[in-house]
Structure formats: C-alpha cells, structure tokens
Amino acid sequence: MHLLDHNHAADRLDRAFPLEPSLVTQSSTQARGRAPSMDHLDALEAQSIYIFREAFARLKKLALLWSLGKDSNVMIWLARKAFFGRVPFPALHVDTGKKFPEMYAFRDQYGKEWELDLKIEPCPPIESVDPTLPPAARSAARKTEGLKLALAKHGFDGLIAGIRRDEEATRAKERVFSPRGTEGGWDVRDQPPEFWDQFNASPPPGAHLRVHPILHWTEADIWAYTRRENIPIIPLYLANNGKRYRSLGDADITFPVVSDASSIEEILLELERTRVPERAGRALDHETEDAFERLRVAGYL
Amino acid sequence: MNMIVPAPLAATPNGTTRPQLRIVIVGHVDHGKSTLVGRLLHETGSLPEGKLEMLKAVSARRGMPFEWSFLLDALQTERDQGITIDTTQIRFRTGSRDVVLIDAPGHAEFLRNMITGASQADGAVLIIDALEGVRDQTRRHGYLLHLLGVKQVAVVVNKMDRVDFSAERFSEIRDEITTHLAGLGVAPSAVIPISARDGDGVAERTPRSSWYHGPTVVEAIDALEPARPLEQLALRLPVQAIYKFDDRRIIAGRIESGSLSAGDEIVIMPAGKIARVKSVEGWPATPVRGAQTAGRSVGITLDRELFLERGDVISHVGSSPRDTRRLRARIFWLHDKELTKGAQILARLGTREGRATVVAIEKAVDPGQLSSVENTSIARNHVGEIDISLAQPIAADPYTDNPRTGRLVIEVNGRIAGGGLVLSVDAGQRAVPVDIVPVESALRPDERSARYRHNGAVVWLTGLPASGKSTLARALERRLFGKGGSPILLDGDTLRAGLNGDLGFSEKDRSENIRRLAEVATHLARNGHIAIVAAVSPSREDRAAARRISEAAFREIYVSTPAEICESRDPKGHYAKARAGALASFTGIGKDYQPPEASELTLDTSRRSVAEAADEIERMLSRTGVLLDEVVDLAANI
Nearest CA of chain B to the CA of A193: how many Å? Predict the structure, then answer.
C-alpha cells in the first residue's frame, strides 16, 4: 500500500520547492518586456492556448485528465493562461489507488492551491479487466475502465489529455482533436483530416473527443517550460541516490532510470545526451510487442 | 561532413534556441519515404541506443533482408511482421536546424493523414522513384502542398541505384516535376538524386553520382526556412470567445497576422464596429504591455461594450478584411460523396462557421492525372473551384493577401470533408441560376443599434390559438417602442391576408408560411429591428427551420397557456367553429401542437399579467444580448 506516508511526502514537496510561494510574483514572459518576437516556448504555449480555447468554445462538457505528472501539470498551467488564471472545467483524476505517495500529496496540495474543480474517480477491481493482457498492461487497462466509468457518470463530451507525439509511436499518429467511439475506442484508420488549426469538434451522440493541447511538445520542451514558468513538480523526477523517474505511473509498474540529474537544468542536459526512450521505465510498454497499441485502441491514453 | 550528432549545448541546455523546422516527406506509395526517414535518422545519429542493431538482429533471425523502413513500421496495423519500434523519435539535427518530421509514416492512400501532417509543415520533401518516375500520387501531393500553402519544397529522386545513376533519367524526371510544380506556383529549392537504401546523396555525395553538383538531402533540409509569423501583414485577430470570468470582459483569440497594442483603434468585422483596445490581459501578470505580435494567443478588453461574437475578425481601421456573403475558393475534396452544385455545406474560416450553398463549380479535376476532363462536381481526392453563398456575412481575405485568413475548410455532418484557399471574396463570375445581387443597406448595424439600444432579433411567439401570443406581442411592441427601440409586429394571420394570401393550411403550405415569416423577420432583424412574430407554428420542424434561417438572432418564446383556458377565451371564435366541424385543420382541437423543447422562454398567460410577462421577455432579451441597456455578454457558452 502506497498511501501511507502523506505527511512525509508533503515535507519532501516543500523541500523541493522552497520558492513556490513566490510563484505569483514571477512574471510571465510577456510581462518581462521581452522583445516582441516569439521564441520556441512562446510558440508552443500560444498554440496550446489556442487549442484549449477551441475546445472550450466548441465542446459542451469538458474535463482535463490530471495524472499529476509533469505533462498534465504543464497542461493545467496552460489552461490557466488560456482562461486568465482559472480552469473553467473539472480536473479529473482517474485514480488507480496505486500512485506514489508523493503524487497524492501533490494532488492534495495543488488541487487546492490552483483552485481546481477536482474530481477523483476510482478504477474497478483488477478482476474485471481482460485477463489475456500481460500483468502491467492489465493493470493499466484498469485505468481505461475507470475512465469509461467516469465518462458514463459525468457525460463529458471532451477529455483533455496530455499526451505528446514524441513519447511513443502510436501517439505520434494522433490528431489534436481525436474522435472516440461510443465505447471510447480509437479508430486509427478512420481519422478525419485536420487542415491547419481547423479541428473536428462534433462528436456523434454518445461518443467523446480527446483533445491534445500539448501533442506537439517534447519531453525537453516540457522541462524547459516548467523551469521558465516555475511550475511545481513532484520530486520523484529529480535524482535521488543515482536514480530518478522520467515518467510517473502506478508505483508497482513504474521504475526509475539511472541518473544524477537533481535539477531541471540537469534533466535538460541529460535529455540532450540520452538516447534511452522516455517510457523505458514504464513496464506496460514493453511486455509484448503490441501491448501498448492494444491498450490505446481500446481507449487508453 | 555536415552532421551534428547530439552533443551538449553551450548556451542554454534546453535545445530550444535553435530554429525548429517542421518538414513532411511526401510522395507516391513505395517511392521510399520510410526508407529515407530511416536513413536520415541513422545518418544524423538520432536513433535510440541499440535500435539499429536490434532491428538487424530481428531481420537476420527471420531470415529476411534488413529494411530501413522497419524503423517506422510502428503500428501493428501497418506492418507485416511483428516488429515494434517503441519510440520513433522523428527528430534530427542538421548543421543549423532542429528538424521535426511530422507524421512521416502512413499509407500513401491515406490522404487525410498526409494533409494533417503537411498542413503543419514549414517545408516538404517530395520523393520520386527513379524507375517509376512521376506518378499520380506525386502530382496529387504536389497539388496539396500548393493548396496547404507549403511553399518550400525539395524534390528527391530516389532509387538512383536502380537506374545505374543515369544522369539522363534524372534530368527527365527533374524536368517533368519542375514543370508540374511550376504550374502550381511552387519552385523546388533543389532536385536531388539519391539512393536512400545505400545512403548516396542523403548526407554525403558519392562517386556514383559524380555528375551531380547540388546539395545533399541534409543540406537541402538545412536550407529550408522555418515559417515566420506574419508580423508584416495587416492585423487579423479572429475572435475565439468572449470570457467573463470576473468583472473583465475579455475577448480572446490568436493574432494570425500583424500586431496589436493597447490604445489601438480597431474595427470589428464583418459588422464594421469601431472601438479602442483598452488593455491586453494576461496571467499570472496583467495587464501585458508592449506590442502583441502574430502567433500570440491574447486576450483584450475594449473601451466600450459592443456586440461581438466568436467568428468576428478584429483588424485595424483602414486595413480591415472585406465583409462578404460570396466567395470563390479552390478546394481539395475528401468526402466519399462528391460535392455538387446546390450542396448545403458548413464553411469554416478562422473561428467563423457559416452555413453556405455551393452555387457554382468549375475546373473540377483529378490532380493526379495529367490531362483530366473537367467535371461539374468534385469527386473524392479531386480538386475544384467553387463559388459559395453564405447565409450570413463574414470577414474574409483572399489567400494572396493573407495566407492565414485566406483559407477555409468545409464540413459535412460535423466532419471536415475538404479545404483549400480563398481565391476571391467577390465570387468572380456569377453563376447561373443565382442571378441575384443583394444590395446591402447604406447603414451599418452598429449605427442602428447605437440609436435603438438593441441589436436586431427575431422574437418568435409560438403556442395554441388564443394562448395570448398577439396580446403579448402587442404589449412587447409598445414597450420596446416606448424605450426608443424599433419593434415590428409580424402577426401570422395578418400576413396571411397579404404576403401569404396564396397559402392554405396543408402541411406544405404551413411550412411555407413559416419560412416566409422567418425570412421577412430575419431581414428586419439584420437591419437592426426587433421582429416580433406571433404565429401558432405548431410544427417543431418548421420552427427549427425558422431558427436556421434567423440563426443567432432567433429567440423562441413558448406561450404555454393550457388548452382548456385557450378554448374558454376563443376571441376569434375559432374553437367554437372547430368544435362545430367548420374548421378542419385547426390546431388546438384537431391537430397536434408540438411544444418547443428548448425555447429561450416559456410563459403561461393564465398565471401572470401581461405586464409581468412582458417584463420576463425583456429580461430574457437583455440576458441574451438583444437589449443593450444592461451589461451584455454574448458568449452564451461561457
């Protein structure tokens, strides 16, 4: 059981981010009076804000999937930029109950601090999940089931998810607005075209859309932006005794990588050099050749 | 050697300071796209550790020759053998660029994917098989690059090893493709002979093509320029939404071209309303100072309350886009069902969506074929020029004036079915049978709304006979007029005496009666009046049609007075006649009345006075942005 040590985890958070209270006084790029021309991060940010606003204008009932990881925290930050400090839709945490204690501590602290409309939805027991999947994939498929239950309960027609094209090959195939079937499934062969920034935002009744505002970002972009904007992170991402997590999932199927990177700057330097894929520590990607793809077609993120 | 293998960066450790270039590799199926991508990744040192060795080992184990394209066979559904590449980092570096390959894998016949990828690209590499030469998909992709606005194209003639690196064969293909692209206004930056499989010409020149003196593929990619935001063009800020999260009324959107600062005098198109930018809002710090340039997503406040909605375009006074209800476009069509003259479509330009009718189709051809016969409709994967007539005026630019706002997509059943370039906003030659030139009013809507203190609207009162529609309509008319407004009553029975005198009470005639009422009312609303329609209008479908005609101006009020009370009132004696069998198709006792499911307001006149009911209507009109006396927020979805 990983839920025990909340207080301890919260202590670690505070140590990792002693400067967090000064966040508000950290000014944005624009306010710093930087030259008007946009840099790479400005361009990424502007595009993501555009996508958020399109989703909010064109869909009726949105939720943002908050997995507590670095990517979804950047998403929340971008949503607050898009909507001037406020996230105007619920943050949905589909909870496997098996996250790291540091992740729960983070959720409790920043759910409040960021004034999120936090909705926590549990996943069904493992017994109800396809037993032909390998163990880690089966565990992740539980999350898909939890997501389906949350969808049915709240009737969302749009789910904002923080996947990126560079993470994983099947995610590279995604659209920014990605239609899902009524069962949540993804038909990769029948995706409508996206011309420029014109998105397909009319899900058929009973179906929903996945919206991917940071699809065009990379792992390095996420860290560079996190550093620039001073966005808080879970300390597990930073090296401890020669290891750190590059990607965070369930505690029992996620493993750290060898690393001495103890700051975001060092993570960025490490990413410049590494040729190990980001999700190498995610067991579910590697059990069989097609495990991840099978998950995604069934509705996994 | 022109390559830089990933190495620590000196200045900033985030790798984001170098210009990023997004390219797409296109071409006919099997001409070697995947092989070239695999080779590029290898030559630029961009492959994950051990990946190449692993793939070679897998190939050897299966007793088949190694193929570079295996690297990209990422999806199970796209591959023949069970080889999964868990990370396809389709990124690499050249001498001065970080290159992102967009969605490079993908079956050639999936043009939807090619379009999705290419429409995000700064540049393209068009690949041609030296043996096969220019094929239909080569031409089609070339055409799409033109339509999508991708101007920088490098052509690669692949599989030169199969033609013994013949300079003659190369010149033949070069001339053919250069001519084809020139016809589309695209001049390739280079035409390069290569063998992707063997590596010749990809990163290095080889003796096998010693007769060639141009750049390698890597050098050609290095020479492409990242697309620049269009700061030099006139300001275009399409409105995405109006937010009222707090006491600020923020107009949100992305600056597509030009720049904008607090204090600027702006004009809101297509209505032509003028205002001044009060502030540029931001978060966490606000307000934001300095000029906001093309590419930025911004939020602004204005110095006055104006009717403004998603789809409007903000520009500077003197350089505004044209407002039009007719435009000509060159489009690529992807829908299974061909696009025909008379088709009802939904057009999207920027953030504006508008119902439109295709009034003419010209130059419809298959861009894959060399000499195509012109058709009168546009088939799947074909192109054509269309004239469309929009139900409402929109702001638009020809693409030659502004590539960002001069483009559109067409939706069918909620799905994007085609897209392309706006050629002109005055529709060019007018098509047959639409030989009508609407003359627009000399006055702008905002001039009228400033005087009347309201926007144009259609207030549609529906309900049983004698439910109180006409009484309410008259009370509302008097009240709006008393406040300086311009209400006009359109009573169903009154119009049947004149304009609709030719119509009876069959279902078809009733529908036509409603259509005419809606058209007249909408015309009045467009000219700033509040048209008050009092009509039984029993059919839900007919009322839905009326709402489609009036669009955003429509406000439906359901007068829900119970049937027995209506019958007891019977001011016109209709119920009595109907009971006596003298009025056959009378709604109320003989025919079903279908009550609205989502009217803007429901009023039961048996339970409140006329004055109270009029108050409620007024409140609804204020709330929904028709009356301007109170603070108005028109973004109903927020």
Answer: 5
